[in-house]
Write a structure and sequence with these properties.
The structure holds 2 protein chains of 2 kinds.
Chain A (H helix, E strand, L loop, with lengths): L6 H8 L5 H8 L3 H10 L2 E4 L7 H7 L5 E5 L19 H10 L5 E5 L5 H10 L5 E5 L2 E4 H10 L5 E3 L4 E3 L18 E3 L9 H10 L5 E3 L9 H7 L5 E3 L9 H12 L6 E3 L13 H4 L4 E4 L6 H8 L7 E5 L3 H11 L5 E5 L14 H10 L5 E6 L4 H10 L5 E6 L14 H10 L5 E3 L6 H10 L5 E5 L5 H9 L6 E5 L5 H6 L1 H4 L4 E5 L5 H10 L3 E6 L16 E6 L12 E3 L2 H7 L1
Parallel strand pairs in A: 1-2, 2-3, 3-4, 4-6, 5-7, 6-8, 8-9, 9-10, 10-11, 11-12, 12-13, 13-14, 14-15, 15-16, 16-17, 17-18, 18-19, 19-20
Antiparallel strand pairs in A: 20-22, 21-22, 21-23
Chain B lengths: L13 H14 L24 H19 L13 H14 L23 E6 L6 E4 L6 H12 L12 E6 L5 E3 L5 H7 L2 E6 L3
Parallel strand pairs in B: 1-5
Antiparallel strand pairs in B: 1-2, 3-4, 3-5
Classes of the chains: A alpha/beta, B alpha+beta.
Pathway (chain A): Protein modification; protein ubiquitination
InterPro entries (chain A): COI1_F-box, F-box-like_dom_sf, F-box_dom, Leu-rich_rpt_Cys-con_subtyp, LRR_dom_sf, Transp_inhibit
Keywords (chain A): Auxin signaling pathway, Developmental protein, Nucleus, Ubl conjugation pathway
């Protein structure tokens, strides 16, 4: 009975496992595999910063070089999570600074990051390489200056869509003159102008620069200078793409773009003057990703551009593209995998563009590889949804936002249950779904029954009763994240499916009918869940137990109730838990 | 045997129960040596059928949602689901190109919150219009832009002369006094405005 391989061999084998799922599985085999695995895991993903504590992570995984942490729930993007709720980075950095001196990568999403944290990062990790701050907030450009000044081996600085207090553009000038390691820079969310000469010099001395996403303050006439210094660029984001139309600017742009033989991705395009778009035509045949979602360009100009991009895989665009433009897309871009159409006038009472359900149906028919959709529109029908489902059973992500809440099928005035039902029935690989429109409990029956691979579900203004929630929680075997707002779901379904919540990352319910009493019960019976009541009306104790809570956030955790709660958050049954421990 | 622990609703099959157990094990920290909880994780035995209570609640819940949409100043927080980066972009565009656009940036009512939340929501009432509106003043930088947007906003309720010459915009300051909008510098106005009202000149 040979006792398997020596540790070194196992460790060598484990090194080939990159997915967390595989590594987690390996660590459950036996004690010695658990031990070997934990010493050689280098990359950690923490989907909910409160599901675990820095101390627990560090104790288990002593030699980590890359960390990815997510903080606030997704609905924070839409202002549903009050400010001050939490997700502070500092405790993580402070702990990791002591234990992971060789940390190289920090990727964050929806965390509160301070200048202090950024400074600590820049000074604690000698070989720091990658900083990605996605939808984060709480820091200023001073924090960026620390990173620029101190991280000698920095490769990637990506601010994605963070909210940065922009004190000045001076931070960029803090990159030392002998700093040459930059591979990726995304500063598109910043407002202030950086020193252009500092930017030029930075770009010139970083030969490995592959991604450069500028901010709006960089005018179009300055782009050629940058492009000429970085012909190796693969991803480029322009600044404001507008200027008085001048032939010399135009021809400089054409020439500069032509020199970039490796460009695959373009973005930026604020304030686009359509006349400048053709300057990019030379590179369009290689383009696989195009983000025009800030470009207020009308359909004909969009079609002109898109018709030059036969290899397009990913398109983000405003609804100015209209049904006609989507028809063109479906005929020119047969490789399309991802489409996002954003609204140009979401708060207007009347439609301002001719974009309907038809556009999406056409793309679903014409683009055989389409797997990921985000679509804002003002009308939808069951027939359209059924057609989309039949056309594209390979859909993985389907997020539909019909702008008017509870809008019915505009042809029949019926709920859209059967339409979404068809989506989950045909698209067996569906992992993410966002619903909208008029929906009864029936749609949830379809989802619970058919959506076996569904991991994330977003629901708003839908359903009739607890039954709807019950269908979802008792079905949907792969469900990890459920976020619900303004639905008549209450205590029964939640309590009857309490066990399900331990199999999920989190549940968000706001403006629903879950009572304080039910929250307390849930918190009492489920010690491995944090049941957070978020209520800005004051302590829930001051109201009857039957009174519904404003917002409820439930997540599994091994770290117990958190200690950094603001005064409008209560963890249910925290007191009892403390008494028992 | 683990299967007896009532981990699932009564009408579930053994296969489904096994799946629950599998999921539980996957979640458990490293090595729980067979220490499966003995608790009843189903906190409520429920047949899953809607009962009369639900019918009543269903009706009133629907009304509640409608009330929130129609009554309270026409606002649905966080809807449509667009993030703040995109919202600011839309506003920037609308300011220069017109359009009936109102900010929806709720926060808590204390304006001395952290630096990055920029929201100064004030109520605006128009004479003759039952429904008041809320507007985020931080997204404007002049009285001109503000008045223009206000009149656009209310024009769907009353026929309004687009020049707005027939209307006076008043605001209530921190002391509770009603003043004419436009008299003090914009910054001063921003610091003290609590709410606003639009009156017709011939009243």
């Amino acid at each position: 009975m040979a006792y398997s391989f020596p540790e070194e061999v196992l460790e060598y084998v484990f090194a080939f496992l990159s997915s967390d799922k595989d590594r987690n599985a390996v660590s459950l085999v036996c004690k010695s595999w658990y031990e070997i695995e934990r010493w050689c895991r280098r990359r950690i993903f923490i989907g909910n910063c409160y599901a675990v504590s820095p101390q627990i992570v560090i104790r288990r995984f002593p030699e980590v070089s890359a960390v990815k942490i997510k903080g606030k729930p997704h609905f924070a993007d839409f202002n549903l999570v009050p400010e001050g709720w939490g997700a502070y980075l500092y405790p993580w950095i402070s702990a990791m600074a002591r234990s992971y001196p060789w940390l190289e990568e920090i990727k964050l999403k929806r965390m509160v990051v301070t200048d202090e944290s950024l400074e600590l990062i820049s000074k604690s990790f000698k070989n720091f390489k990658v900083l990605v701050l996605s939808s984060c907030e709480g820091f200023t450009t001073d924090g960026l200056a620390s990173i620029a000044a101190n991280c000698r081996n920095l490769r990637e600085l990506d601010l994605k869509e963070s909210e940065v207090e922009d004190l000045s553009g001076h931070w960029l000038s803090h990159f030392p003159d002998n700093f040459t390691s930059l591979v990726s820079l995304n500063m598109s969310c910043l407002g202030s102008e950086v020193s252009f000469s500092a930017l030029e010099r930075l770009v010139s001395r970083c030969p490995n620069l592959k991604t450069l996403r500028l901010n709006r303050a960089v005018p179009v006439e300055k782009l050629p200078s940058l492009l000429r210094r970085a012909p190796q660029l693969v991803e480029f984001g322009t600044g404001a793409y507008s200027a008085e139309i001048r032939t010399d600017i135009f021809s400089n742009l054409v020439e500069a773009f032509s020199g970039c033989k490796h460009l695959k991705s373009l973005s930026g395009f604020w304030d686009v003057v359509p006349a400048y778009l053709p300057a990019m035509y030379n590179v369009c045949s290689r383009i696989t990703s195009l983000n025009l979602s800030y470009a207020t360009v009308q359909s004909p100009d969009l079609v002109e551009l898109i018709s030059q991009c036969p290899n397009l895989k990913c398109l983000w665009v405003l609804d100015y593209i209209e049904d006609a433009g989507l028809k063109a897309l479906s005929s020119y871009c047969k490789d399309l995998q991802e489409l996002r159409v954003f609204p140009s006038d979401p708060y207007g009472a009347e439609p301002n563009v001719s974009l309907t359900e038809q556009g999406l149906v056409t793309v679903s028919a014409g683009c055989p590889k389409l797997q990921s959709v985000l679509y804002f529109c003002r009308q939808m029908s069951n027939a359209a949804l059924i057609a989309i489902a039949r056309n594209r059973p390979n859909l993985i992500r389907f997020r539909l936002c019909i702008i008017e809440p509870q809008a019915p099928d505009y042809l029949t005035l019926e709920p859209l249950d059967t339409g979404f039902g068809a989506i989950v029935e045909h698209c067996k690989q569906l992992r993410r779904l966002s619903l909208s429109g008029l929906l009864t409990d029936r749609v949830f029956e379809y989802i619970g029954t058919h959506a076996e691979k569904l991991e994330m579900l977003s629901i708003a203004f839908a359903g009739d009763s607890d039954l709807g929630l019950h269908y979802v929680l008792s079905g949907c075997e792969s469900l990890r994240k459920l976020e619900i707002r303004d639905c008549p779901f209450g205590d029964k379904a939640l309590l009857a499916n309490a066990a399900k919540l331990e199999t999920m990352r989190s549940l968000w319910m706001s403006s629903c009918s879950v009572s304080y009493g039910a929250c307390k019960l849930l918190g009492q019976k489920m010690p491995r869940l944090n049941v957070e009541v978020i209520d800005e009306r004051g302590p829930p104790d001051s109201r009857p137990e039957t009174c519904p809570v404003e917002k409820l956030y439930v997540y599994r955790t091994v770290a117990g109730p958190r200690v950094d709660k603001p005064d409008f958050v209560w963890t249910m049954d925290e007191d009892a838990a403390l008494r028992l421990s | 045997m683990e299967l007896e622990l009532g981990l699932a609703l009564p009408n579930q099959t053994p296969m489904e129960i096994k799946r629950h157990i599998k999921q539980k094990r996957e979640f458990a920290e490293a090595l729980e040596n067979g220490d499966i909880e003995n608790k009843k994780l189903c906190l409520l035995l429920w047949s899953g059928q809607p009962d009369e209570e639900d019918d009543d609640r269903r009706g009133s819940q629907r009304t509640d949602i409608n009330k929130r949409i129609n009554e309270e100043e026409d606002i649905i927080v966080g809807w449509p689901p667009i993030n703040s980066v995109r919202k600011e972009l839309l506003h920037h565009h609308q300011q220069y190109h017109g359009g009936n656009w109102i900010a929806r940036v709720p926060g808590r009512d204390n304006n001395n919150g952290a630096r990055n939340r920029i929201s100064l929501l004030v109520k605006v009432k128009m004479e003759g219009v039952a429904i008041g509106r809320k507007i985020d003043l931080r997204l404007f930088n002049s009285y001109q832009a503000l008045k223009h947007t206000l009149l656009h906003m209310f024009s769907k309720y009353l026929k309004i002369d687009r020049n707005g010459n027939e209307y006076t915009v008043l605001y209530q300051d921190k002391e509770g006094d009603w003043l004419l909008a436009g008299d003090v510098p914009w910054e001063t106005f921003m610091e003290s405005v609590q709410r606003m009202e639009i009156l017709r000149n011939d009243s």
